[in-house]
Design goal:
single chain, about 140 residues, alpha+beta, 2 helices, about 55% helix, about 20% strand, rod-shaped
């Protein structure tokens, strides 16, 4: 909860539990599961990135792609009087727009992956510490 800054909600079944948050103000949807089966503990951290795709590709595609294409048309036809250049300029501009959106999405998703990996590692350390403190202590064999 502290790592993400959202209280979320917890569900528990036996010794396993899941903490999740629905869509936040930033559009994040997260789920952290800790399951115990056959004496093994498994931590799973999952984030749905579909809202990130829309948040990146929509504004970049619409603003940069659509708005920028309009500017390119104005420059080619109005200022340079060379509308034939649009056959090359518009596809190049749209490729640049896609590349920009892809770079932003990739960078943001990599950063989020690092954050969630760090969270899983911190959870693993806490669980290991708890297990070592609560493990029964058997006397040394004679």
């Amino acid at each position: 909860r502290r790592a993400v800054g959202n209280s979320g909600h917890v569900t528990q079944l036996g010794r396993s539990f899941t903490w999740s948050i629905g869509k936040t103000a930033t559009g994040r949807t997260l789920e952290v599961s800790v399951s115990v089966r056959a004496g093994r503990t498994r931590i799973t951290v999952d984030e749905n990135l579909s809202s990130l795709i829309g948040a990146v590709y929509g504004p970049v595609g619409g603003g940069m792609g659509g708005g920028g294409s309009g500017i390119m048309v104005a420059i080619m036809e109005g200022a340079l009087h060379r509308p034939e250049f649009l056959l090359a300029v518009i596809p190049l501009w749209l490729l640049t727009t896609y590349g920009t959106a892809r770079a932003v999405f990739s960078g943001t998703s990599r950063r989020r992956r690092r954050e969630l990996t760090d969270l899983a590692d911190r959870l693993a350390a806490v669980i290991e510490d708890e297990i070592s403190q609560t493990a029964p202590q058997f006397p040394e064999p004679r």
